[in-house]
Write a structure and sequence with these properties.
Shape: globular
Strand content: 15-25%
Structural class: alpha/beta
Largest sheet: 4 strands, parallel
Radius of gyration: 15 Å
Number of strands: 6
């Protein structure tokens, strides 16, 4: 933050939950940054409902950025409903191919 010349980050997220054994530790770190007032909102990208449920006891998820395209429509099967029921903002990442 010092190198960027800022003292506050509006939104901070875990982008991919690849190393699932470290997701809780990472989420705890983001929750601490929010508590310290260094981050406004914390969220996730490419997480499943189960993964969001796993970190929910640590701190509520404010937003989700799921993958979404004409071919990748899995978010329509429960994830968007989950977000609505749990007050989680969602902005789907539109996937595309330059070869289309």
């Amino acid at each position: 933050m010092k190198r960027l010349g800022i003292d506050f980050i509006d939104m901070y997220m875990i982008h991919w939950p690849f190393a699932i054994e470290y997701v809780e530790e990472g989420w705890e770190t983001l929750a601490e940054l929010k508590k310290e007032g260094k981050v406004g909102q914390i969220g996730v990208s490419n997480f499943s409902v189960e993964q969001m449920e796993m970190i929910k006891p640590i701190h509520p998820v404010a937003f989700l950025e799921p993958p979404y395209s004409m071919l990748e429509r899995g978010v329509e099967q429960g994830i968007l409903d989950y977000c609505g029921k749990n007050n989680i903002g969602s902005s789907p990442t539109v996937l595309y191919s330059r070869d289309c």
